[in-house]
Design a protein that fits this description.
Helices cover 3% and strands 41% of the residues. The chain is built from two helices and 16 strands. The chain is globular, with a radius of gyration of 18 Å.
């Protein structure tokens, strides 16, 4: 049974039929609604200001993610995270995140979390540079960045995530996902169920660093906004959306991940470097590369 807790890709490559045939999943569970890209991409510089926290990993470990007890590593399944000198965007080290799939239990995940900054800043920019050493095949879902929210002492759910899928001819790309498992209205008012937002603006480069940056204005109603840039090109601009639960401890919490239940080839490794959270000043906008509802 596939763990569908973190979203489903927009595109499933036909060549994956043999892989999928060996992986049991529940076809009766409805897939999230896919909203196609609307409009042309526009180059936009995030209005991100002062650095609140950063990790360049040149301490030779992942201790920067733990600073002030405001985050850390949360791994599951067959997953390892470590500082590595295999490749780095700056300095000598980056974070190396490796998972093995499929295996038991179903999912494997490296999650590098920060929560202090989002607890104190309703608006902020969250960014990291990622390096994919090779092309990977994504049969179902692959979560590389997420914003979670708590509700009381029991629920801790993903609201928004960046996922990786494959285009029909194979290249990897990033899409935006609202988790279909949420039993709450959203992402917009009068909407329910999962949503995946695609784009044809940018692919994920292989063996080259790419910068993913997200502006988040948190809201437990429908006054939130999420803007996604890849290498300073705006991919998504979702305004008037919900991002979190209304409970007192529901402030969004951010993580950069290597998280999936089946990828090929396996083991699957990505590298993360120069992560940062900054103050933000972004004018709300109802338009964007994928602003359609």
């Amino acid at each position: 049974m596939v763990n569908r807790a973190l979203g489903i890709p927009v595109v499933v490559v036909g060549a994956l039929a043999l892989v999928l045939a060996s992986h049991e999943y529940d076809a009766s569970v409805p897939r999230p609604h896919t909203v196609p890209q609307a409009g042309d991409a526009r180059v936009a510089q995030p209005r991100c200001g002062n650095v609140l926290w950063s990790a360049d990993h040149d301490t030779g470990d992942l201790s920067q993610w733990y600073e002030g007890d405001g985050g850390g590593e949360f791994n599951s399944g067959s997953a390892t995270s470590t500082a590595s000198d295999d490749v780095a965007r700056s300095g000598r080290f980056s974070a190396k995140a490796t998972i093995v799939t499929p295996h038991v239990p179903e999912t494997s995940g490296v999650r590098l979390f920060r929560w202090t900054e989002s607890h104190f800043h309703q608006e902020a920019c969250y960014g990291a540079w990622l390096y994919f050493p090779q092309q990977y095949i994504v049969p179902l879902w692959w979560n590389i960045l997420q914003f979670k929210s708590r509700s009381g002492s029991t629920l801790n759910d993903v609201f928004w995530s960046l996922q990786v899928g494959n285009r029909p001819r194979g290249p990897m790309f990033v899409y935006l996902n609202w988790w279909e498992g949420l039993s709450i209205e959203g992402p917009h008012q009068d909407e329910f169920g999962g949503r995946s937002y695609s784009q044809t603006v940018k692919d994920i480069p292989v063996r080259r660093w790419t910068h993913l940056q997200v502006y988040l204005r948190q809201s437990s109603t429908f006054e939130g906004q999420i803007i996604v840039w890849q290498d300073d090109v705006e991919l998504f601009n979702m305004n008037g959306v919900r991002t979190r639960y209304p409970s007192g401890n529901g402030a969004n919490e951010w993580s950069v991940n290597n998280y999936s239940d089946i990828l090929s080839p396996s083991p699957t490794t990505i590298y993360i470097d120069d992560a940062a959270i900054t103050t933000a000043s972004v004018e709300p906008s109802s338009a964007g590369a994928s602003g359609a509802r």
